Amino acid sequence: MIRLSPQLRAGIQRSTLPALILLSAGIVLIGKTDQTMFERFRTGLSDVAAPVLDIAARPLGAIEAALDRARGLIGIYQENRRLEQDNARLLQWQQVALKLTAENRQLQGLLKVVPDRAVSYVTARVIANSGGAYVRTVMVNAGTEGGLARGQAAITGDGLVGRLTEVGSRAARVLLITDLNSRIPVKIEGSHTSAVLAGDNSERPRLLYVGTPETLKIGDRILTSGEGGVFPPDLPVGVVSAVGGSGPRVEPYVELSQLSYVMVVDYGLSGSLPQPIQPMPRPGKRAKVASNEETQAPPRGTR
């Protein structure tokens, strides 16, 4: 390295600023006196600097394009997430709409039923199904508070479902026509042949005690006969689906495994059923038991 004396360095520093001022003034003067030469100089400098600036600008352009693509991908990802959330919400609403549509269709079917000779009727929702191998019952969300009583018929727009066997204040149990304990007096439409529809816990109950079995054929409609005072006559039950083998079988009109709503109808016949046996009160509490029985008597009203 060239070492300069302190005096020389101080002289250079003092003369640098005046020299730059003089150089600038000279360039300005030259540009004023000979603009053509100065223009050629500036143009030549621009020609030399242009390739360098172009090469330097290419990486910057590539970086800017990459940033634009990255911003676009981020926007697409965010839009996709939003669309997925909207799709999930729409699927939930679709399930709700389908459920409401099915319930509405079932309720409209019940509205078309005009119970003949009915004293009162209540539309109830099925809240539980026995689902067992030995019992065919369902539970509905209505009881004595709604005017229900033991023995009343449960129907839908398609036909007979069963009858009430257990009734509480807010819930009741319906014995289906396919239950092993179900016995319903019926008749074959057309021939008016009497029979008994007997459940055996299968999907298709049997026909017993057919008066003239030789006249029975597949497709015959089965209706309630009204005998026994439990059901009124002419309630649709099902059609004969088999006549050989283990005996005549009936396919119910109602899809009993898919019940959602039923109409519990009071035809004024429930009083003919035997009431459950009440335990005998002890001698010292006879008056109290009688009072309790009076307060627990279910109200009867129409709907």
Structure description:
It is rod-shaped, with a radius of gyration of 48 Å. The protein contains 3 helices and 12 strands, in the order H-H-E-E-E-E-E-E-E-E-E-E-E-E-H. The chain has 2 domains: 34-112; 120-272, Rod shape-determining protein MreC, domain 1 (Thrombin, subunit H). The protein is of the alpha+beta class and 303 residues long. It has helices at residues 6-33, 35-111, 286-295, and strands spanning 120-129, 137-140, 153-155, 160-167, 172-176, 183-188, 193-198, 206-208, 221-224, 236-242, 249-252, 261-266. Residues 285-303 have low confidence and may be disordered. The strands form 2 sheets. A 6-stranded antiparallel β-barrel has the order 1-2-5-4-3-12. Strands 8-7-6-9-10-11 form a 6-stranded antiparallel sheet, with no helix packed on it. The longest helix is centred in the N-terminal third of the chain and has 77 residues, at 35-111. Helix 1 (6-33) packs across helix 2.
Report Rg. 48 Å
Which geometry do the CA atoms define? rod-shaped
CATH class of the largest domain: Mainly Beta
CATH architecture of the largest domain: Beta Barrel
Structural class: alpha+beta
Question: How many distinct helices?
Answer: 3
Cα(first) to Cα(last) distance is 115 Å
Residues in helix, %: 25-40%
CATH superfamily annotation of the largest domain: Rod shape-determining protein MreC, domain 1
